[in-house]
Amino acid sequence: MKKVLAIIGGGVMASYFGEACRRIGYESHYFSMADGKVDNGEPDFFHEINIFEKDKIVGICKEINADGVVATTELTVPIAAYVADKLNLPGNPVEVADVITDKYRNRRCIDGLATLLSPKYIEVADVGDIANADMRYPIILKPVNLGGKRGLSVVNGPDDLQAAFDYAVSSFRKGETPTVIAEEFLSGGMECSVESISYKGRHTVVQITQKDSSGAPHCVELGHHQPAPLSDEDWQKVVRGVCDGLTAIGLTDGCCHTEIKVIDGNVYLIEFNARPGGDHISHPLVKLSTGFDFIAALAQAAVGELPPVDVTKFEHRYSGLYYVVDQTKALKPIFDRCENEPWCVKKNYVADDLTVLTRNDMENTNYFIYSSDEGDPVRKILASN
Asked: pLDDT (tens digit, 9 = 90+) per residue, 352-370?
């Protein structure tokens, strides 16, 4: 009998799950409003519905005999957990999923861990809270429950606090209560993201990605590279720290995109995101660098039939993505001809004019994806010029 997967959402990540279902022979069902549906990766069935009508989704899932439910964004994580719980399907505890996007709560959960550290942090209702906390500058201000660097600013002194606070608050949806977290800025080290899959309480780190950052004020991501060039010792420290952190925040099933910094052999948490990594990190970069079909594995985990994941049998290749914008204009000559290179997997051309990237918007930005057996080909080209 073909397994039936309910996919909560209709965006790009949902389309990846639809494509994965085809690869492994599952029947896919999107649950989304029509204006949120992406045309590529067509599902077998589309249910036009407001995703916040959770009990209606439960009813439809009963009718189609859904075997599993997956979330595609932070917004859909609690919805997927609710549906899975009502249908007695694999999923995260509802009480965990409801608060999993709360950065302040997650930092409180890992307090005391020796393997995953935090900078000094406080929850902020107004800028006066920061002055009273005696925090050292620079600090980062960001919304407490939004991912993807939305609303984030690096603040170098008290004169910039109000503008950064207002920027964070402006990122909230209408009607939401804006709450901000302030953290002392972690300087130096290597910024990474970690893709993991959890199954019945057991966590497996699938890949670690090095990030290129624009730096202050908004720390926009300009590139991603797999695997991150960490020493074996630091790699294992990341694995231990992230797995300990996932247990501490109560995540039991599904994926997590965890952002960290490795500084002098210590692993510091930036944030947890209980969904696949965007910017093509979870797909196709993970498959290009490891040979492991991460999205298909998440579908298998959701229906309760994930085979054992043996990371020692993964391929060891190199993959990555470069955004071509004003901050990375040295890449423009490579971008102009990259489609002719054997290492080029995809070129996304939007415009010749390079603008400053202030917020990641993948499909509306110039970028290219590489894959190679011999390291990052782009760095080699830049080094030879």
From this structure: 999 999 877 777 899 999 9
- Strand, helix or coil at 103? helix
Which amino acid would we find at residue 162? Q
Element (H, E) at 299: helix 294-302
pLDDT at 37 (0 to 100):
62
Across 322-343, average pLDDT = 97
Question: Could you give the count of Cα atoms lying within 13 Å of 133 in the half-sphere of its Cβ?
Answer: 20
Edge-to-edge order in the sheet of strand 180-184: 121-124, 180-184, 139-143, 153-155
Q: Where are the beta strands (DSSP E) in the chain?
A: 4-8, 27-32, 45-48, 68-71, 121-124, 139-143, 153-155, 180-184, 190-199, 202-213, 221-226, 254-263, 266-273, 318-323, 344-348, 367-372
Reported residue count of the chain is 385
Radius of gyration of the chain (CA): 21
- Distance (Å, whole) CA 366 – CA 350: 5
Is the CB of residue 243 less than 8 Å from the CB of residue 228?
no
Alpha-carbon distance of 357 to 341, in angstroms, equals 26
* Terminal-residue alpha carbon distance, the chain: 57
Can you read off the two tokens belonging to residue 325?
């914008």
